[in-house]
Amino acid sequence: MLSVLIETRNDEEGLVRTLASLVGAAVEGVVREVIVCDRGSTDQTHYVAEHAGCTYIAGAIAMGIRQAKAEWLLVLEPGARLVDGWTEAVMAHAARSAM
Question: What pTM value is reported for the model?
Fold first, then answer.
């Protein structure tokens, strides 16, 4: 349903927090893929993204958008944590759009 794009640079800790908040949505099938677009990090961002099963792109978010496979895109910054109930809101919106 969603391709999540995260553009980052030297914020591995923020990336970990954001990825952790997406786990439930991935299990429910709301998140189809996560693409981490790295703008030249020198920390462990690459390792974090690969260890979490994300697609890692060394470059700007435009590259990630071109590779996204889902119909819907969700762009987040590292450290963002989504509020409880966001997956239900996304599913309801997608259902209304499909009608």
Answer: 0.93
Supply the pLDDT for residue 60: 95
Contact 45, 14 (CB under 8 A): no
User: Got the DSSP string for 38-71?
Assistant: ESS--SSHHHHHHHTT-EEEES-HHHHHHH--SS
Closest CA to 41 of 63, 21, 57: 57
**In residues, how long is the chain?**
99
What proportions of the chain, in percent to the nearest 5, are helix, strand and coil? 45, 25, 30
Q: Give residue 13's pLDDT.
A: 97
The answer, yes or no, to whether residue 10 has pLDDT greater than 80, is yes
Reply yes or no on whether the pLDDT at 64 is more than 90: yes
Q: Which helix (H) or strand (E) holds 37?
A: strand 31-38
